[in-house]
Batch of 2 targets.
Target 1
Amino acid sequence: MTRYAYFVDLSLCAGCEACTVACQALNGLDWNIRYTKVDRMVVGTYPNVKSSFVTTQCLHCDDPPCAAVCPTGATYKTADGPVKIDDENCIGCQYCMTACPYEARTYDAAADVVRKCSFCHDRLGAGERPACEQTCLTGARMVGDLDDPTDPIHQQISAPDVIHIEGTSFYYRLPEHLDRAALPADFKPSVATFAWQSIVQPVGQILMGSTVAALLLSLAVNAFRNRGKEGAQDGNG
């Protein structure tokens, strides 16, 4: 069984944003929409200043809250790890955007759907590499299979200086002058997501079921009454 993970070596990132542009080109995005973001981090005080770049995107959580709150099942986690969105089922409610702790989603008003990084899941299935990894000029990006012990990604993520963003599919190596605070936080389920899963959705389903039942009962009663009226009219005739 394949289980994808993503390793990013920020000590090699040059901030060129080739990954961002490749993603935009592949997904037909406008210049201001970025599924893959590259931010400059500056530390120190003049004249002892150093800068590095931190790249972020959807971290493809192990237990994605976006999928938990989606009322139609449009957002789902695949068996091999990536979290995807089915445009056909997305109703543009944007609940997933509120639930996402990494602000990794964007709303497409023209199509009335939410979009994000798909881990280039279709490309992986076709034996190709993700666009962002393929275009990285310094080799700072690597996608691999955690369930394959021979995959080169294991040589990277097993190093003591590599940080796993807990609860997600992402691993990072930092340059020496950046600390853990520069990276996305470990994933922790929010109270709001728990409330949605445990209270709002079940109650909503019950109420929706009651509403449908009441509607069907009303239709049946009206049909019965109409048949009674028709019978009475026939008898009078």
Target 2
Amino acid sequence: WCPRAIIYDPLKVGSIDGTDCQPHDRAIIRAQNADYKSNKKVKGDPECTIFVTRLHPKTTERHLKEVFSRFGEIVRCRVVEDLVTGRSRGYGFVEFKSSTTALMAYKRGNKTIINGSEVFVDMECERLLPGWVPRRLGGGFNGKKESGQLRFGGRERPFRKPIKLLSKKELIISLSDKLNKPKDQVLKESSLIAAKLSEISNK
């Protein structure tokens, strides 16, 4: 058992303990049916990149660099903007020169106040978490209780420990079927992600 999702399964992250067998909202079904591929145009090393959200509308790339450069050398910052209006969509990415400084920013930069807003920091999921589906397609993590579309297994809302745990063999078989990947590949990918999460938790 792991409190964080090591492979993104829309059905599981829609459950408080990761054990649901049926979707409880239509967004989960939408995420299950999404054929999402990560953006190949995204530059940089995902191991060295953090995701920063809940940004103030006036927060710019310069602000991000000023705040996060205290953790180490930054390669690039990007605030994601709406293609039509050009306004900030409230989140961005900061790439550091090393994964060590990115990990430090992840650990210490969360809940930093920038322009009056408390930001949320996570590692980049799109290129690091197999099976990832973004929020706009019904996936993602967190969410608001009022929407009835909470997502678990992330930093802010980890899974609760279920009453009955699957064995490692049962879990690998289940994930292999869902991701349509060989069991050996799923085992290798999940082991690497579990090791990374352990490193994050212990530092």
